[in-house]
Known about the structure:
Structural class of chain B: mainly beta
Order of helices and strands of chain C: EHEHEHEEHHHHEEEHEHHEHHHHEE
Number of domains of chain C: 1
Mean pLDDT of chain C: 95
Largest sheet of chain C: 9 strands, mixed
Number of helices of chain C: 14
Helix content of chain B: 10-25%
Largest sheet of chain B: 5 strands, antiparallel
Low-confidence stretches of chain B: none
Low-confidence stretches of chain C: none
Oligomer: heterotrimer
CATH superfamily of chain C: Thiolase/Chalcone synthase
Shape of chain C: globular
Strand content of chain B: 35-45%
CATH topology of chain C: Peroxisomal Thiolase, Chain A, domain 1
Distance between the termini of chain B: 66 Å
Strand content of chain C: 15-25%
CATH architecture of chain C: 3-Layer(aba) Sandwich
Radius of gyration of chain B: 22 Å
Number of helices of chain B: 3
CATH class of chain C: Alpha Beta
Structural class of chain C: alpha/beta
Shape of chain B: extended
Amino acid sequence: MSVWDVFNGKTRFLEDNMNVDKFVYTLGHGYEKFFNGLKEGKIIASKCSECGVTYLPPRIYCEECLSEITEFVEIKQNGVVLGYTIQNVDKDGRHLKEKVIWALIGFNGVRGGIFHKLVGVEPEEIYVGMPVKPVFREERKGSINDIQYFTKTV
Amino acid sequence: MKLPGTPYKNEDFKAGKIPYVEDKPDARYQFSVGIAMSRFLEELRKGKIIGIKCIHCGRVYVPPRTFCSYCFKPTSKWVYVKDTGIVNTAVVSYIAADRGRMDKPLVVAVIELDGASPGMGILHKLGNVDPEDVTSRKIFGKRVRAVWKPEEERTGSITDILYFEPVEED
Amino acid sequence: MARMNINFKNRVAVIGAGLTLFRRRMYETSRELAWEAAKQALDSAGLTLNDIDAVVFGSAPDAFDGIHMQGEHMTDAAGGYMKPYTRVYVGGGTGVFTAIAGWWHVASGLFDRVLVVAEEKMSPVRPHPQFVFHHIFDPVMDKPLGVNLIWIFALEMARYMYKYNIKKEDIALVSVKNKRNALDHPAAQVAAEITVDDVLNSETLVWPVQRLDISPVSDGAAAIVLCNEEYAKQYTDTPVWIEGVGWSLDTTYWTNRDLAFPKYLYYAGKMAYKMAGIDNPRKEIDVAEVYDPFDYKELHHMEGLQLARKGEAPILTREGVTQRDGDLPINPSGGLLGVGNPIAAAGLMKVAEIFWQLRKEAGKRQVAKDPVTGLAQAWGDLMQIGTVVIMRV
């Protein structure tokens, strides 16, 4: 006879939440360069002098050879859609009036890319490889949102 | 040797000199208490402490659990233990769970309940104990008894026991 | 003692080590910190990432730095890009456990050269890591009582003091020694020249635990490079061999444990001693880095490791046996109490210290005796695991 047979009572539940105020993520040396660039309307990557790989967002080390990276370069802002998804519902599952397109944007000769919104593009016309460019905000403060969105290159 | 790393001071962070992003987690959890502990909590509501016995090795576990970690077999016999026990160890807490100072120090202890196997302690508060009796270690090895909440206020929680207090002994 | 009858293919050597500074708040991201240590370890061994076959990474609860799947997050920084890569986790015991996991990667013959990296960032969680520690406790028995992490240590310390009639003054000597030792450590966060009175007069948090009994909250990273015998002979004239490893866990029902004696460590130590063929640890271990997040824990752990009889560690400490120039130097690095406690990184820092001590590369921290056999140990999970590595030259 198991304990469960002896006790046919109800299982109880307890609730708790992880009550921390917040997490503070310092930018570190790589992201700091990247965000400072965005503030100036530039996209900054880092380039390994040993293997020549260019990283976006920039890293201070090379994942191929683990060398230190000290060369930061501004890249051309014309990119292409590497992948995309169309958001129909919000995080609570409610239908959105206007669909949101999210895309991973790649840049020529660069490893990595930028994940951002795509605006001014109809869901039907988007395709992998579509040329796009960033639209920067007027007021910038060093954040990924300094880029308002990406849009198609005309 | 100079080691790598860039320390920063909290003052500089507060002054806005340190670039950062932030996020607030909102993780909520619901724990199933399980078979053994559901019964344990139900018994607390009735003002009783229940343990469980492994019929293979004879150990009486408090709090109860569905298997014996020594024999690795199911435990099968519910047994009530007393609401008295011996203080195994005790301390005086001046800080709360969030590291803030408490208004009044709190004495907490590991108590080995009478009727449980040796070493089967539980954590609880001690009441009517002077912090002096802890720091002088007078309370160590002394018998204490549970002081329960009035029955109508009990909810089936470890806090249905308000605290343990010393038993007057001759 | 007969050596443990265990089959392993290769002897494993430590051939390099690296550290970052240990500090309360570091500006680098977790990845940047880990990379600094990993890179330095490779450089010190004279290797490049191309030479590395596999990577083991360790860090403690993700809830400190607020990045879940921390292991995966760290892959590139730890040198694990497109390599067999593993994250291990046993709470505070993680640092030494990463070395143990690295050991079995090589000892098994599966890999020849392995990079082992441990990193911790505790500064991101606000207002204080205590808020996270609260969630390691049992939600039914412990949490409703408002349990504080320090309660569990204080209760253990009080039981230890009660059972063996130990004076707080003798325990405070550990803090004094370790903070002083740390003055010579380049990573040290809280090195200081203090007195027993300073400890006894510091703020009482949960009697008997006072502020200066406790190691700080820290950010930092550490790394070592391991390889098999064939490569070790090729790379270095001074390999340090890992001769024994051990680990063991006590019950998670912490109130059901023997709080005066760390059984989990007794069993972990026994396993490691048997593997290393050690009969008399007190005589055969020349230098040890035992886990000291609290001063009493150094004493507790010495006894669990049979480096002292039960209740004897405070006496050895009072007599100066555990000083750098003593017969059994303990925590010549300065330990967690002096160097700091970026959890997983602190454990691996201890392994690195024994590596440097046995190679006689510890500089001002070098122990007076000529050490041949050393031991590094950590402790963690819900204060229940002992992790042990024994090294020899």
